[in-house]
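Late entry, written up from scratch paper. The run itself happened at the end of the previous shift, but nothing got recorded in the book at the time, so transcribing now.
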Amino acid sequence: MTVWWEESGWEALSARAGRTRLPGWDCTAGLVVGERGALMIDAGSSLAEGARLRTETRRLLAPLGGDRRVTHLALTHPHFDHVLGAAAFAGAEVFGAVGIDAVFVHERDALVADAVRHGLDAAVAAEAGDVLVRPRHQVSGEWTLDLGGVQVLLANVGPAHTAHDLVVLVPGEREVVFCGDLVEESGEPQAGPDAVPSHWPAALDRLLELGGGDAVYVPGHGAVVDAAFVRAQRDALAARFGVS
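Output as recorded:
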């Protein structure tokens, strides 16, 4: 099955999980495939990017038979490059950390403005903002999704990178942990005005506890890393922000 991922142009992380790195901001989008459903992890920075992911995943799932599509969508945190494509996944059950809906309702204009500030076309950003999808399911602790043959754990480990950080643990011979921007490999982790730096090291401690020493850790941006990388980034963040 890992060959199937590679033939589809995605990076295989396990038999059940793969990911792609989107152009522009090098943002990760992940997919977990079960026998009865498929979970998308993050949705890209625009409706066009979300539509591209939807098309790619339908093509990727087609060899498995039936009318396969993304049935669930998990948003790791409320930043534009991870959420503005969500409306492309019509009919999917959408998950986020508790409180993320308030960001989408009360801070939508700021989210769109941030996208424009980072280089997204203003009309494209506004269009996506107008149809921004509010997660129906909000995770305050942990939530298990049974996709058929694989049970995926969604865990709220924040606040840290934002006030609403969700990670996704995929079991297997080697666990796969989708970290969102709690972990970044292609650059130093970004701490914007919505970050809670004093809690960030503890969030990474929890992430490492969930995944363990042998897991594959998938950053929000950059190449896949191991537990040692996450631990080193945790210590660097603790030193950077003066917390233990």
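The longest strand covers residues 176-184.
(Scratch paper discarded after transcription.)
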